[in-house]
Amino acid sequence: MPNKTIYVSDDDLPLYKRAQELAGNLSSAISIALRRYVEMEEGRLEGYDEITVRVGRGTGRKQRFSGVLLAEGGRSSKDGYEAFKVYRSRTGKFVLHADRRSQFKQNADDERYLTGWRSWVGNWSTDQSWSMAQGEATLHVVGTVEELRALIPEDLYTLVEEAAEQPAVEDLDI
Length: 174
Hints:
alpha+beta; five-stranded antiparallel β-barrel; 24% helix; flat
């Protein structure tokens, strides 16, 4: 195995020591970091961005991938709001991030309480309640645009279908 020497400044020495503690050996830490760096830079040069999205309930957890945004949209109802973003990954798959925002329901004994705070002044009722569910975000990965059809609104599907035919980056010879 080839032997390479890496010179480390005194200021960076604590960083290298910590990397060695985390990875077990410094060679492994450097290889992992370089692999990730090369992968992300090659993707960036091809027109892809590093995408980080939140998934799960509430604050959930974060997931990251290399992709390009094709289209986004949403829909709302009396029960809540759904936001959709569709990406093309660097491997050619389609990634759907669906974020169902918090759902809020208000129950009142009279329709006037559903029209805003002005109707409440002087008419406070003890028969009012409200409920709220935390939103949930999901990530779906599919191989073809057609597989997205059942997962997103039709108007958004049309935009994704059109955008999917376009290259991530078009090099112009100008």
